[in-house]
Amino acid sequence: MLIRHPDEIAPSEITPRELYLDRRRFLALGAAGALLSADALAALTARKSVYSTAEKANSLKDITGYNNFYEFGTDKADPAAYAGAFRPRPWTVTVDGEVMRPRTFSLDELMKLAPLEERIYRLRCVEGWSMVIPWIGFPLSALLKQVQPTSRGKYVAFETVLRPSEMPGQRTRVLAWPYREGLRIDEAMHPLAILAVGLYGDVLPNQNGAPIRLVVPWKYGFKSIKSVVRIRLVETPPATSWNLAAPNEYGFYSNVNPAVDHPRWSQARERRIGEFFKRDTLPFNGYGSQVAQLYRGMDLKANF
Ligand SMILES: Nc1nc2c(c(=O)[nH]1)N[C@H]1C(S)=C(S)[C@@H](COP(=O)(O)O)O[C@H]1N2
Ligand SMILES: [Mo]
């Protein structure tokens, strides 16, 4: 793919200084780095976004070392420990179902659909912890516009890759594989919903959903499905892995809501990883002024 030289980019678009340092480190890898260079360099020239929070981002160590990716095990340290053998390249994403133009996209094609942006988002896990993560990505709407959903395409269903040989968790029955998630079409078209291809100015680490994953910052973290290979437009709400596993605990919407407790614990507060004291959880994870209108007139206790 074409790589924009940093000199062609207006200073206002330029990434933070660390990204430049990172890029130099990356180039220093020379031939060893060349395998990854096309999409990695594109990621490193991402623009800043008006949608970013000004809160302090968590460390790369926390973001890559403490997380959930049940395909690699159920412990928070398992993804970092066991995702090393996963091969995220080459990669394609097939988009089909209720669309005018079904199509399979290569990773390079996906990364050229829209300018890559740095989006610093809060992520609130349903378990009660949160992080701030500097993603690199582009709006999911840019992909959906390419395939032209029909009037029957009212929901969007997502699937993670099924590859038990590289994903030890898929050799157990802890969830219904492949991992599945879903959004309503208006949620999927919202500018805050992105497909992320990197974080901290580099390509996505395997344990964070390489090479491409969804990020929906106003919903609990499990909606942000990792390592996506298939996106299907459908007429009715699609099945999701967590709803199948525990329908009384995980509904279709899963909007962050401090007023609706999980059946086994309160959702009123959260612990930001790296901090000691808990903080109040905000409705829609603090993105209410941007997304609350999507749910006007809905009973958010019934539609949890
Ligand atoms: N395929 C897949 N996607 C997944 C998960 C998973 O187990 N498998 N875990 C989810 C959960 S519970 C959270 S909190 C986020 C964590 O994302 P992060 O690793 O980028 O912090 O990924 C979500 N996406
Ligand atoms: Mo989570």
TrEMBL record:
Post-translational modification: Predicted to be exported by the Tat system. The position of the signal peptide cleavage has not been experimentally proven.
Catalytic activity: L-methionyl-[protein] + a quinone + H2O = L-methionyl-(S)-S-oxide-[protein] + a quinol; L-methionyl-[protein] + a quinone + H2O = L-methionyl-(R)-S-oxide-[protein] + a quinol
Keywords: Metal-binding, Molybdenum, Oxidoreductase, Signal
UniProt GO BP: protein repair
Residue numbers binding Mo-molybdopterin: N67, Y70, E71, C125, T160, N208, R213, S224, I225, K226
Example of a GO MF term: metal ion binding
Required cofactor names: Mo-molybdopterin
Enzyme class: oxidoreductase
Domain Oxidoreductase molybdopterin-binding stretches: 87-242
EC number: 1.8.5.-
Family: Belongs to the MsrP family.
Functional note: Part of the MsrPQ system that repairs oxidized periplasmic proteins containing methionine sulfoxide residues (Met-O), using respiratory chain electrons. Thus protects these proteins from oxidative-stress damage caused by reactive species of oxygen and chlorine generated by the host defense mechanisms. MsrPQ is essential for the maintenance of envelope integrity under bleach stress, rescuing a wide series of structurally unrelated periplasmic proteins from methionine oxidation.
NCBIfam families hit by this protein: PRK05363.1
HAMAP family, alphabetized: MsrP
Complexes and interactors: Heterodimer of a catalytic subunit (MsrP) and a heme-binding subunit (MsrQ).
Protein name from the UniProt record: Protein-methionine-sulfoxide reductase catalytic subunit MsrP
Organism from which the protein derives: Crenobacter luteus
Gene name as annotated: msrP
